[in-house]
Amino acid sequence: MSKENLISKLLKDYDSALNHSGVNGERLGHRLAMLSEIGATADGGVNRPGFSAEEKLAKEQVKVWMKDAGLKVWEDGAGNVFGRLSGLADSIPAVASGSHVDSVPNGGNFDGPLGVLAALEVVEAWKYTGYRPQRPFEVVIFSDEEGARFNGSLTGSMSLMGTIDLEKQLQLTDFNGDSFEEVLEKYGTSLDDLKKASSHKKDIGLFVEVHIEQGKRLEKAGLPVGIVSGIAGPCWLEIIFSGKAGHAGNTPMNDRKDALVAAGEFVVAVETLPEKVSSTAVATVGKLSVHPNGVNVIPGEVSLFADIRDIYENTRDELVSLVTEKANSIAQTRGMEVSIKVNTSVKPVPIDESIQKKLEKAFLENQIEQMRLPSGAGHDSMVLGEEIPVGMIFVRSKDGISHNPKEWSSLNDCVISVHVLKSFIESL
Length: 428
Fold this sequence. Notes:
The protein contains 14 helices and 15 strands. By secondary structure, the protein is of the alpha/beta class. It folds into two domains: 3-231 and 348-427, Zn peptidases (Aminopeptidase, 3-Layer(aba) Sandwich), CATH 3.40.630; 233-345, Alpha-Beta Plaits (2-Layer Sandwich). The strands form three sheets. Strands 1, 2, 3, 4, 5, 6, 13, 14 and 15 form a nine-stranded mixed β-sheet that branches. The longest helix is centred in the last third of the chain and has 21 residues, at 313-333. It is globular and about 80 Å long. The model has no long low-confidence stretch (mean pLDDT 96). One of its GO terms (molecular function) is hydrolase activity, acting on carbon-nitrogen (but not peptide) bonds, in linear amidines. Homodimer.
C-alpha cells in the first residue's frame, strides 16, 4: 500500500469531530503514511529491522517533527530517541510515552509507530492550545523492539534500564553475519556508548505506551480503546519425550513406546490447563520435532516447546507446574522418559491499580466505555515496568491481525487513543 493509498484509506471514514483540543487526526494520519514509505514492501507492509538504515531514517523523520513541535531532542548510545518538553516543575522525573519504529519482516504500519506518533500528537495539541504540563514530558522511540535483527528483542529499552545481558548480546550475529558490535558501529554508535544509555533511567518517573491490541477483544466488545491490566511474562519449556523407535509394520500396537502419541496426548492436554489457574493465562505448543521422522518408523523421540504466559507471576508459575506434571504423568503412564528444561522465563508486569484508575478517569472524561484487558505480547513497557510505574492503552485491531501488512486500526480509534493519553497525562 503506497503512502497515498494509506492516507486515503485512513481519511475515508475519519470523523473530523475528533479534531478538538489541539489534536489533529489528519496530521496523525499523514505521519503514519509518511513512515509507511520508509522500508515499504510490495505487499503494503514495512521492513525496518532494528539498527538498520530504514529504522534510522524513520527515527530521523520523527526527530524533525519533534523539533518542529518544540522538543529538545537527543539520541543515546543505544539509538533510543528522546524529545523533551519542560514542565512547570522541571526538576521532578518526567512522564514519558512512546514506542518503537522498527518492524518484523514485512510487518504492519501501526505496531510501534502509532505509540510514538500518539505521544507526539499530545505535544502538538499542547503547542496549539498553549498548555504546559506540570511535569516534564518525553516522547520516546526505543530501538530494536521487535528483535528481527538478532532474534532477541527489546534492545533499546533494556539498554535504558541497564538490564541488557551484554555478554549474551556480544555473541549474536545478524542475518548478514555481522556481530552485534559491528552493527552498532555501522549504525553510528558503539558498545561503550550503549553502556551509558542507562544514565537517563533516573530521569523517568512514569511511562505510558499506546499500542495496537494485536488481538480481538476490543473488536468483539465494539470498543475503540482499552486499558491494559498487565503484561504477560512468557515461560518457555523445552520438553523431550523419549520412547523407542521401531518398524511401523512389525511392531504390535501393544508393544510400542510411541513418543509422538505421548506428545500428541500432551498437546491436547495443555489446551485445558490455563483455565484451571486464571482467566488471563494461556499456553501454546507452537514448535515440535519428530525423530527419526520416517514414514514407516515409530517415532522414538519428540522435542517440543510450550509457551506459557500470564500477567501474574504466581498463576503463570502455577500453570508451568501443571504443564510439567502433565508431561511427567503421560510419560510415566506410557513407560517412557521425559526431560523438561526452562529455556526462557520473563517476569510478568501487572499494571498498578492506581494507574488503571487514572486511565479509567481519562476514559470517562472522553466518554469512552472502559474495558480492562491483558497484554499477551511483550512490549517496551514490560521492560520499564520492572522498576518504573507503567500504563498501557490498547487500540482496536481489525480482525486481531498484527505483524502483517493487513494490520489495521482506524484513524478514529487512533485519534481517540491520543485524546485518552492526553487526558491521562494532564491528570498527573
